[in-house]
Amino acid sequence: MKINESEPFENGANPKQEQLGKFTTDNQGEFMTTDQGLKINDDQNSLKTGERGATLLEDFILREKITHFDHERIPERIVHARGSGAHGVFELYKPMGKYTKAKFLNDTSIKTPVFARFSTVAGFRGSTDVPRDVRGFAVKFYTQEGNYDLVGNNMPVFFIQDATKFPDLVHAVKPEPHNEIPQASSAHDTFWDFISLMPEAMHNVMWLMSDRAIPRSLRTMEGFGIHTFRFINDEGKSHFVKFHWKPKQGVLGLAWDEAQRIAGKDTDFHRRDLWEAIDEGHFPEWELGVQIVAQEDEHKYPFDLLDPTKLIPEEMVPVEIIGKMTLNRNPDNFFAETEQVAFHPGHLVPGIDFTNDPLLQGRLFSYTDTQISRLGGPNFHEIPINKSIGEVTNNQRDGMHRMQINKGRVAYNPNSMGGGCPFQAMISEGGFTSFEERIDSNKIRRRSKSFFDHFSQPELFYRSMTEDEKRHIQDAFAFELGKVKIVPIRQRMVNMLLEIDEGLANIVGQKLGLTPAKLPQPITGSIPADGDLEHYHSFKEKLSIKDAPSLSMATKLPTDIVARRVAILTADGVNDEAFTKVKKELCDLGAMVAIIAPRHGFLTTKSGDQYPIDDSLLTAASVVFDAVYIPGGDSVKTLSANADAIHFVAEAFKHCKPIASDGNGQELVEKSIGQSANKADGVSSATTLNEFVEDIKKHRFWNREMNNEIPA
Ligand code: HDE
């Protein structure tokens, strides 16, 4: 497919979808064939020496089928193995020509096809969706100038400052090598052993202990490019840029107890949620934002722009919103698309470039290298999901699984026999050139002193949290360190917390039965080799802002209830109006409503109308819903005598979710959570549906945790 760069993609046309279509097939109306196209007459019996005889080696149909099956698995990703993906489009709000010449960031009429993959980091491919973990947030833009990949996370900073520490970090967090325990969890000795000796990790660790690490949905996460990149404009001028994805669905988390239960009830909780939202037409959207810093301002901040353990607070450099990504199509085949997609921070287009961030520099090597073993050779760019929409024309040849058929005798440059083709492109023709940064230095193995302030930003993060968020962080530390068996590691961590916030250190220490102790001197490796501590707390001293509210999730609630999941808990004999009216109104507002009853089949209302039951108390759990509504009627009597129904409501209450009841529905609420709890925030009567809707927008009523009355 040749892409004409001067023409934006035709109205509504999606060149990537068109391209994928050529590789997509279904078996509808077709004969069954072998891989060679031979029609198969009997797929149920192998070729044997008589009815009860041995199978013949000659049976090439059997051999082909079994051989293919034997080789169905490929190595999973070493990190980010567990993921979910979706197709979509990116639309630009305003041309960014002042900063970048990237075509897809200049022409607002272009709808750039994208494929996004979200992932956990530590767990294996079949692990739960809801561990406490960082989430990957990777987007491939199929632009007219080639593929551009923004391979980020849902947290704006990383654990380490140099790529050489990455294998150590990953070895520490992955299941321990002797017994492969625990799966998908950082709550074990080796992770915290490493962290307690790695002060630079503390900023990311604070985010990891926050509710950002247990997102309610993949749709309710922010995304960050983390590193500082460069935008390059037509004149070759560079600006520094940090990328942000802001979800239109709000930024929401789970309760930790809830996350642990979901891990058992629905391992695919996030994958299912994304799939169903897209399937039902509730397309998730994220706005792309940029923080831009002029080249001249590189050294203006009390932290280093090249240090990936630091963020630029939005209160210092505002995020400018420049476009929107909408995910609007589920993959046709998980393996072909979500598993085989290959991201790489080095997939660039003219107008975007790297900086010398030492973590980013290491990533530029790793991503191609890893695909070679994961996807079996150097031709993974030819796999349909990875193919650029423009033609690939170069002198690369051969290798495992080569698809392209290159004609002619010439596979070298320069050549005269091929007419000099393919040509190099001049800058004016879209040829990529690297930013010409002046470098004049010795070859050294050292970090800049400006990287050695490890605690100011974690301190700012903690200070900017609400009281509820702070409590969640304290509890998360206590849980994780409580799982650590080696007490000196716990002690080192509590001591480290003292460097960030005394209150935090004391609370966590108290929960662990430890007294935080001031470090006699900074941990080795956390200070420059010459011991100069000038930068140790530089940010704290020079900071112009006290708080950064942008770091808190509390300021990022949704403005509607689209795709929020509401359980209508009911049984036969429910009052018709209380049931149908609220159901309809919630559905009209875009909520995803499910009828949950004691058994499967059909629900019969008081007037005898029948409705299909979506799920029964045998299989459903309150943890997979955002809110519960109990309509009144004879149904309430049945539910009040059902322990699963009582548990359903009690658990929803414990996890701070909105609960609404109508008429005698309140009896079930009281039976589940008691009379006093019944007056708690977020427990309402559905006669005022508005209140319930507003409660759903508020997501959770965390203050209920303070009483901790409900054992559910
Ligand atoms: Fe990755 N990372 N990473 N990483 N990363 C991989 O590449 C690596 C880092 C991120 O959905 C691997 O294709 C190194 C930061 C995402 O397919 C591997 C370093 C950030 C994904 C790799 C980092 C990320 C990966 C494994 C330190 C956020 C999943 C499979 C120098 C900005 C992409 C693969 C997907 C995947 C290496 C650090 C994000 C091994 C060496 C920082 C979202 O190449």
Automatic annotation (TrEMBL):
Any one of the GO BP annotations: hydrogen peroxide catabolic process
One GO cellular component term: cytosol
Cofactors that this protein relies on: heme
Residue numbers annotated as active site: 80, 153
Region spans: Disordered: 1-20
Key word Amino-acid biosynthesis present: no
E.C. no: 1.11.1.6
Top-rank EC class of the record's enzyme: oxidoreductase
CDD domains: GATase1_catalase
Covalent cross-link 3'-histidyl-3-tyrosine (His-Tyr), where: 344-367
GO MF assignments: catalase activity; heme binding; metal ion binding
Keyword Transport tagged: no
InterPro entries with a match to the protein in the record: Catalase (IPR018028), Catalase_AS (IPR024708), Catalase_clade2 (IPR024712), Catalase_clade2_helical (IPR043156), Catalase_core (IPR011614), Catalase_haem_BS (IPR002226), Catalase_immune_responsive (IPR010582), Catalase_large_C (IPR041399)
Homology family: Belongs to the catalase family. HPII subfamily.
The protein's name in its UniProt record: Catalase
Organism: Kaistella antarctica
Organism classification: Bacteria, Pseudomonadati, Bacteroidota, Flavobacteriia, Flavobacteriales
Gene: katE
